[in-house]
Amino acid sequence: MSYSQKIRPSIERITDANKQIENVRLNSAQGASRAKINEMFDEAKQENDDLIEEAREEMTGIMPDDEDDMPAFNAWLDEDAKPMLRGTTKLLAVVLGIFKSAVVAIVTIVAGPVAGAVTKFFVDRAGEVWNFFKKYF
Q1: Can you give 70-119 as a three-state secondary structure string?
Q2: CA angle (70, 76, 78) in 5-degree steps
């Protein structure tokens, strides 16, 4: 199994957990106050920080014990893992932008179009996540 395949579950947990976080936050965004919005984003940031730390521990855990395997592992870090982590960060930034747009739409639009804004968010999000996984896996 390649190193990328070993950390794929960690990356998937980050994107899946964010999807759950976003779903809860979008559903509670209607009628939200500034304090409630700040709380939503603070909680999401903390949950992301926890997931990133978990991924760090997993990546450290897949380091080879045999020194002879370290050159291949280091090459994988430089060629695959670093771009993958940068890609994950960029993906989350894009998803956050989509999320913010959806929150603004929900807060400013009457109840009828809310479902459309939420649906658009998840469709756009799914496309970004799909493109990311196609690129790296």
Answers
A1: HHHHHHHHHHHHHHHHHHHHHHHHHHHHHHHHHHHHHHHCCHHHHHHHHH
A2: 105
Tally of CA atoms within 13 A in the half-sphere of 67 that contains its CB: 0
Q: What is the mean pLDDT of residues 75-95?
A: 89
Q: Is-contact 94 129, C-beta < 8 A?
A: no
Query: CA–CA separation, 106 vs 116, rounded Å?
Result: 9
Q: CA 12, CA 9: separation in Å to the nearest integer?
A: 5
Structure tokens at 39: 């709380």
Q: DSSP for 16-40, please give it.
A: HHHHHHHHHHHHH-TT--HHHHHHH
Q: Are 59 and 8 in contact (CB under 8 A)?
A: no
Higher pLDDT, 21 or 66: 66
